[in-house]
């Protein structure tokens, strides 16, 4: 069966000034009707990719097709085919939810009864009907994000770009967005999702592209990426009567893990745990327990399990914390969310 790609880019390059090389020959292929998670550390080039694919920024080199249209030679056709929801909800707080959607419908040339009907349909779909006639400034963060997502779907886009859509949301609101995204993909919409929540990508993405330093460094399904780095060995230590004894125990556990896995162990003294990625598929739990016992490590529990996507991210990008708050980075492009929404409309 021939795969049809909703997003296809080759050799994308983007510089900002003489010193910042945001993209360095990035290739991307997203099959129709799938969710592609784009991950990467701060400054890796994620937002620049989205801006190029949504025609907000021109690449310096390379090509990109979205829904079969070239982002450089046919940007209007690209815009007619896509929806975009950025990192922050771009709704007018003084307008009601219904008025916001009707305004965006007019901007998108969905006028008259068709625009009103589509707005009402989306309010119901995102469980906003009861609050439809309240000012959006009274909405919770989750409600505002759902309203913004509804606005991005007014034109029934073939491709939907979500740039960190659940940043700052509580778990309940996040789950609502996740459910909506999964339903969209199941209905045939292609979704390109950038996120720093690794659980989000694990739950939603059919495929993942890990961008690092402006290139697509790794790609595959969540299961394939996890298998690539091996299993995760973790030791929970028994309580010790003194801090000195506890420190001796955790360092002894770290030494055993270092010897068996060849990876630098992660130590959590508060939880009394030591863990490391075990690339060697021959490592077994009985062997781990035997080596710990031989070293005299007081073990409360030991496990050998598949890695989480967080651990995959850390190993493949060599970063310390994928969920750290975003801070400006010299590879990041200045981003005007309001300009983006107006331009896309």
Automatic annotation (TrEMBL):
Keywords: ATP-binding, Nucleotide-binding
UniProt entry tagged with the keyword ATP-binding: yes
Domain of life: Bacteria
Keyword Nucleotide-binding: yes
Protein name (database record): ATP-binding cassette domain-containing protein
Lineage, highest ranks first: Bacteria, Bacillati, Actinomycetota, Actinomycetes, Kitasatosporales
